[in-house]
Amino acid sequence: MTTIPEDEAVRPFIEDANFAYVESTGLRSRQEDYCLFQLYSRAFGPRLLAVLADGMGGHAGGAEASRMGVESFVSNFDSRTKSLPIAEVFTAVVEQVNSAIASAQADHPEFADMGCTLVGLYLHGRQYQWVSVGDSPLFLYRGGVLRRINADHSMAPVIAEAVEQGKLSLEEAQDHPSKNALRSAVMGRPIELIDLSGQKVLEEGDVLILASDGVLTLTLSEMEDVLVESPRHARIQAERLLAAVLAKEKPRQDNTTIMVIAPGACLFSPEMVAKYPVVEISAPDEGEAAPLAKRPRGRGQLMAALLVAVALPLLLVSIWLVMNGRVSFDHIRDWIDGERSSVVPLNTGSAVRVHIKVPEAIVPQGTGATTPAPSDPFPVPAQPAPERSKPL
Fold it and tell me: Which domains does the chain have, with CATH numbers?
């Protein structure tokens, strides 16, 4: 069974601060990306599932494939046998998604060419694993350096290897007709390549980013520059990355979806809001970029003011009582310990779904207390990472 440090076991994932998504249609006529976060009960430690798909197969087919891929992934993940290792769950889930695509193709001949890329990421405390098919990237930002950690199943790595071996020139590689072709995707047929990770561990300050290939309008260096200048807050980082993509004004900019996960990131405070205002995002005039609503922040400022108004008088009274000998510091400490012991943790055992397409779910926040937990329904046993599929 996975062991979660006590401080991690009571730290929830908070929407906006710890996980957020943004999307844009770019200069395309339709959005064919689809993504979803699923947040589970914190009874077994904070657990989060993030899934993203980039559809293909014509306008209607691509949009339907990505939606079906993500929703089938999540529903099958939820229904897998709880005792299975996550790697086995991922493998079974991808096959189920592929079967769902095949059934849709059989029932709707107009969708015969539908398919999608797929990236699924599961976090349990600081441990994480992923599965991916296709070219949608998964990035790890650590210590100011951004790198892609999942395999690229497009022809790009094969062409780059040919350049390194002297089989192609840089000019030939840049103009290669197959540079954007996929070697593997979820198309309702046998899947050629699947990237399945072993168990990984996040370090303090790490950020994970799932995206569709529209984000590759930016280089890794350009993405790093954005992240370095942004606070560790998922929504701010996601919005600024998308703003940087659209600012490039690339002709025929593809759909772009960016999911950011920043465990341990700080919540909004009035000071952070003042220092890092929300970035207004707009697409070039030619497209139909999906608008991003600017979320109101006044409620947080009001709560901060109320907390100060309540806490300050209590502090002044406590100081007066100590200075006048009415009470000792030991009494105050004993009183605080007594109050702390009366806190009841929120361990309902129920799943809380956060469907980011309709962000109406309320994410439960921990109380800071712990109780003995039953066995974990999603154990992540230690296991070696399998070798990634070799390029053709």
Answer: 6-295 (3.60.40.10), 301-341 (no CATH)
